[in-house]
Amino acid sequence: MNISRENIDELNAVIKISVEKEDYEKRVADVLKSYQKKANMPGFRPGKVPAGLIKKMYGNAVLVDEINKIVSENLSSYLSENDLNVLGEPLPNESQEPVDFDSQENFEFSFDIALSPDVEVKLTKREKLPFYKIEITDEMIDGHIKTLTSRFGKSEVVEQAGEESMIKGDIVEVDTDGNEVEGGIRAEDSVISTTVIKDDSEKEKIAGKKSGDSVIFDLRKAFPNDTEISYILKITKEQAAEVNGIYKFTIKEITEYQDPELNQELFDQLFGPGNVTSEDEMKVKVKEDLEKTFEMESEYRFATDAREKLLKKMDIPLPEEFLKRWVRVNNKNKEKEEEKVSEEQIENEFPSMLDDLRWQLIKNYIAKANDIKVEEADLKEFAKKSAKVQFMQYGLTNLPDEHLENYANEMLKNQDQARRMAEGVINEKVTEFIKDSIKVEEKEVSREEFNKLFDK
Amino acid sequence: MSIIIKPLVTEKMTEQGETLNQYGFVVRRDANKIEIRKAVEAMYDVQVTSVNTMRYPGKTKSRYTKSGILSGKTSAFKKAIVKLAEGDKIDFYSNI
User: Fold this and answer.
1) Residue numbers in A near B14 (CB within 8 A)
2) By CA distance, what is A48's nearest residue in B?
3) Contact call for B11 and A53, based on CB within 8 A
4) pLDDT score of A61
5) Mean pLDDT of chain B
6) First and final CA of chain B: distance in angstroms?
7) What is the pLDDT of residue B40?
8) What's the pLDDT at A335?
9) Higher model confidence: residue B91 or residue A365?
10) pLDDT at B24
11) Is B34 an 8 Å CB contact of chain A?
12) How far is C-alpha B92 from the chain's CA centre?
């Protein structure tokens, strides 16, 4: 067994591993022996198959397998022993001669590796980065309150039809004199919403009418859409396409949607009992909520800015040639056909991939240099937070802590997810660290301006 | 007729081949150890270190059937156990 390394340049190196007979002989024999004990072959009782036969059948496969294992074991131990920071994974050298396992006894393998460049990040207070804060306007608060309360609104019967009324009544087809057409279409208890009437002159006819009144109007003019007509007249869409002419609508009931009254009951429903007692308090509370959500966005923006700035400042060289090859090989080895991406896609996404890698290196450096670690408690906290965000999307804002904790634990059980969480924690901590070590300029911007920042 | 009649392919001999490097053959009844050594060395291109031989007598075999008693006789034979020099091997399964 012999391992040697040749540095081609700063970022690329070749590792040569030679495997001799002594290295693999015993392991191969052991594996074959265990095969012999288990092999089931016609003509022999189990465990009584001659060794020579087993060797002939499985010998080469086992040999390849064992050599593969030996090489990868040694390669990884070599990498860790020599403290080499490798980007991607070692790839077989392209000039590798084909190996003949039948006749060769000693094997030599060479691998290309890419070394990660030395990264050193120095953060001083001289660096400046803006931290955008979104200005919260009264409109935003009002809008938010409206969406919050709208769920608790009620429909109420009103006297007069207005702009946003739902009108229930009977509708019949009539002639120009206002008499019912014999054999015409009629529907009882159909509902018309004044907001969907397209034509203004038709809308005016209904406005201000009271229950019991009747209106004659041109149905086609008021509702150009077949779907609406079919709904109002309770006929199929195909039939509705042929509907024309004037109709008499007799109003039975007018209802209108009413915003809910801002009272203690509503506050309790929205914010939990006793937390909010007046409208002003509700506004303050809503503002806090908004601040919280906006702060998350601001943080995100800051993290993106920091990433961009550091990437620009550092300009880390990477072994692009090798990485491209690595990406291609990985792509080719994917088991599922649909996971594979086209050559073009690789070409397009490659630059951003390099940037991601650079950022990863910077992050790792910062984390290592400043002793940033992921603790169990951090992970839990993060899982809880993301669980909360997830539930918030479904509109569940007041979940008990216990419930969240259970859910978070459940999430952390999934290894994949736990790893992602750990990454998230590191991200957060690194961003926090960057924020502490450079000069942060707070800027207040409006929502629109903030959104524009992402368009660039 | 050649000295070696057939190899002994049994579980017992397989085991011995693997552990003791000994291989068994049925040989001509009048062959002596020297002849056997030479025959094996020539046929398998190996080096023989020792030869043990044993003679087996033929036995009468009889069976009781519906149509009376069937009787017969197995033939006598000579068995040779050959030990090979270290590193040499005979593979009786090379042609499967």
Assistant:
1) 48, 50
2) B11
3) no
4) 85
5) 92
6) 26
7) 93
8) 66
9) B91
10) 95
11) no
12) 12
Query: From the candidates A48, A54, A57, which should be mutated to test the interface with B, based on the most B CB atoms within 10 A?
Result: A48
Q: Are A302 and A435 in contact (CB under 8 A)?
A: yes
pLDDT of A339 reads: 66
CA-based radius of gyration for chain A: 36
Low-confidence ranges of chain A (pLDDT < 70): 95-97, 151, 153, 163, 260-262, 269-275, 334-340, 393, 395-399, 455-456
- Cβ contacts below 8 Å, chain A against chain B, sum to 16
The arrangement of strands across the sheet holding A2-7 comes to A2-7, A12-19, A107-115, A86-92
A47–chain B Cβ distance below 8 A for any pair: no
Residue B16, min C-alpha distance to chain A (Å): 11
Under an 8 A CB cutoff, do A50 and B18 touch?
yes
pLDDT over 80 (residue B71): yes
How far is Cα B52 from Cα A327, in angstroms, rounded to an integer? 66
How far apart are alpha carbons A421 and A404 in whole angstroms? 15
CA distance B67 to chain A (A): 35
Would you call A46 an interface residue with chain B, using a CB distance cutoff of 8 Å? no
- Tokens 């216990």: give the residue: A402
The label of the residue with tokens 């594979």 reads A340
The larger pLDDT score, comparing residue B82 to residue A43, is at B82
Is the Cβ of B45 closer than 8 Å to some Cβ of chain A?
no
The pLDDT value recorded for residue A455 is 67
- Structural tokens at position A203: 């809308």
Distance CA B91, CA A130 (A): 81
Phi first, then psi: give them for residue A86, nearest 5 degrees: -100, 140
Q: In angstroms, what separates the C-alpha of A108 from chain B's closest C-alpha? A: 27
Under the banding of pLDDT at 50, 70 and 90, the label for residue B30 is very high
Question: How many Å separate Cα A263 from the centre of its chain?
Answer: 38
More confident call, B18 vs A436: B18
Asked if A48 is an interface residue toward chain B (Cβ–Cβ < 8 A), one would say yes
Structural domains present in chain A: 2-115 (3.30.70.1050), 128-143+274-455 (1.10.3120), 154-258 (3.10.50)
ipTM of the complex: 0.77
